[in-house]
Amino acid sequence: MYCMNDIKSSTDSTEDLQEASSKTGHKQTQISPGDSRPESRRWWIKLIVKPLLLLAAGVVLIIGLGVAQKIGWISAETGGGGSDQAAAGDTRTYICPMLCTPPQIGPGRCPVCQMELVLADSGGGNSDSKSVSIDPAARRVANIHTVAARSAPLVRTIRAIGELNFDEGSLKTISAYVDGRLDRLYADFTGVHVNRGDHLALVYSPRLYSGQVELLLAKKARDASQSSSLQRVVRLNRDMYESSKQRLIELGMTEEQIIDLELAGEANSRMHLIAPISGTVIKKYATEGQYVKEGQAIYELADLSTVWLMLELFPEDASAIRYGQKVKAEVQSLPGREFTGRVAFVNPTVDPKRRTIGVRVVIPNDNGLLRVGDYAKATIEVPVTGNELQGKLYDPELVNKWISPRHPHVVEASPGKCRICGIDLVPASQFGFSNEPSSNGEALVVPRSAVLMAGSDSVLYVETEPGRFEIRNVVLGARSGDQIVVLDGLEEGEQVAVSGNFLIDSQMQLTGNPSLIDPTKAQPSVKFEMDDGSLPPIGEIVMAGGEATTESPSTLEIAEPDDEQLAALRELSLEDQQLARQQKTCPVTDLPLGEMGKPIKVMVEGRAVFVCCEVCRKSLLAEPAKYLEKLEQEAMR
Fold it and tell me: Do 499 and 413 share a structural domain?
């Protein structure tokens, strides 16, 4: 039933379409079922393919325009003739947003990165070539704060890691005095501690026996001749006795052993080897029952009552260290325990491989807690002044005291002899120690956040007037915590920016003023007047201490020298040096000549023009009129 109705409805619809077609005068086209698929395909092609073709054509057009602009077929500048004339007459300063090149007059594109130059902001009406003015509202937004530079006593802490070692002055080697056999070794293992006078070994020696017999016979002859009236005989027997006694001492017997021999009256072929010092056996070279030759080593002893701490310091740290200075150390095996010692030696040479200086510290070890080979962390406090080498060091333990020139840990309250080496003690003041607490001096310090550093350049910004910040090139000294010493370039009491100084530096860059990137513009200049109106060669300028720029044919302005730039210019002949100095900059990049190496000389229309690199030479030859006109304008300014 439903199918019949559908067929009837379809038939009615077809008749209606035919009737409508006949009324409008159009020819009815009968559509068969097989024709629906091509019509659908054509519809999809119209819907998708045509927009894609248009999009592809647009992309190709954009790429073509970019390539044409890159190779110079079309200009990147827009606008009609009126705008070109306005740009040509624009004398304002424009800079590259990436600061690739120095500021230039007039708009355009950066020759390095091809970015559009932007107009330099003046930064305020009161700005000059070394400062920038910031209004109070911008200062609050930039969060700029200042503090005053002050003079204050400052202590710099030097930290280093070292290794404990034997005190080489206390090392003793026990050798055989005479040929013989070691019948017994009392110190029979490494590490045993012995005291002075202890028996180390029992040595059998026939030569020692004959020497003892000779001494006993000489003693008997001396005693028998005491009653003789012939003084010559008495003197001869006494000399023979002294000679025999001295021979036994040379064979290793002590005075006490010789006295015991004379009291016993009987020679013994075996002798005890006595320890000459108290110490620890660190090496044992022989075994019991071994035959040894005269001079052969048997033991090596070390007195561990003092140990050495061997440190490696950088030269700038070692230059502030002096003999006798106190050092605090904490060994790795005893955390929390602090030991103190004094500097005994500072190596006068720098290690060529590690570029460090060896410093030796003597640390007392009376309780034997310190072990050779252990690592220790050392801390040395050095007063920071304007000149650390000339400053006096105050140490309460050395006030009006006398110190040994070889053993700094030997400190006495009165003059005398060193108990270790026997040389005369000297006053501690001779080693740079003061008896007054205030002698350490003061240094001009500013917070570390006030200083901007880039390579070897250090600058800070001083608020000379309210809102006016001036750049200063400074020479820095030592640093202690968040404070840093300023040796030159700043006066006490001047206000320096400690926050927001990066924003100030950015403003200086935008105005084309000296900044952290190029602080040499802020260097003072010295003018030299030439008698004959000519300019001296570069060699003479270097003798004067600067890099030349000219204001007039007879005036020479000397700025802070650039060693690399001067070296590049000196590769030219004297005549070319003078021409390059008069030109000053490359006409293509505006970079100072010599900054990129030896300048390249190019003859353009009979005139010598210097450029900084090969790429600039090609640009110069491609548009010679443009760059010659630029050089003329530079010369007129």
Answer: no
Q: How far apart are CA 105 and CA 417, in angstroms?
A: 79
Looking at the fold, whether 332 and 229 belong to one and the same domain comes out as: no
Dihedral sign for Cα 311, 313, 317, 319, please. positive
Place of tokens 């000549």: 593
What are 455's two structure tokens?
A: 């390579």
Buried b (16+ CB within 10 A) or exposed e, 7-43: eeeeeeeeeeeeeeeeeeeeeeeeeeeeeeeeeeeee
In angstroms, the Cα distances linking 287 to 172, 190, 282 are 19, 12, 15
Domain boundary among 519, 550, 572: 519
pTM of the model: 0.55
Domain co-membership, 413 together with 540: no
Query: Looking at residues 411-415, what average pLDDT do you find?
Result: 89
3-state SS string over 360-425?
A: EEEEECCCCCCCCCCEEEEEEEEEECCCCCCCCEECHHHCCCEECCCCCCCEECCCCECCCCCCEC
557 against 59, higher pLDDT: 59
* Residue 28 counted as domain residue: no
Burial letters for 531-551: b for 16+ Cβ neighbours within 10 Å, e otherwise? Answer: eeeebbbbeebbeeebbbbee
Q: Which domain holds residue 55?
A: 41-73
> Does residue 288 fall inside a structural domain?
yes
Confidence of residue 497 (pLDDT cuts 50, 70, 90): very high
Q: Please check whether residues 555 and 533 belong to one and the same domain.
A: yes
**Rounded Cα distance, 130 and 489, in Å:** 14
Is the pLDDT at 553 greater than 80? The verdict is: no
- Rounded mean pLDDT of 287-313? 92
- Residue 422 burial by CB count (10 A; 0-12/13-18/19+): exposed, middle or buried? exposed
Domain membership of residue 579 (yes or no) is yes
Angle formed at CA 39 by CA 37 and CA 42, multiple of 5 degrees: 110
Q: Which pLDDT tens digit goes with each residue over 308-334?
A: 999 999 998 898 888 999 999 999 999
Considering the domain architecture, whether residues 322 and 430 belong to the same structural domain is answered as yes
Are residues 315 and 381 part of one domain? yes
Please report, for the domain that includes residue 312, its CATH number.
2.40.30.170
pLDDT for the residue 13: 43
Strands 199-204, 104-105: pairing is unpaired
- Is 163 in the same domain as 173? no
Residue 592 is predicted with a pLDDT of 84
pLDDT, average across residues 283-299: 91
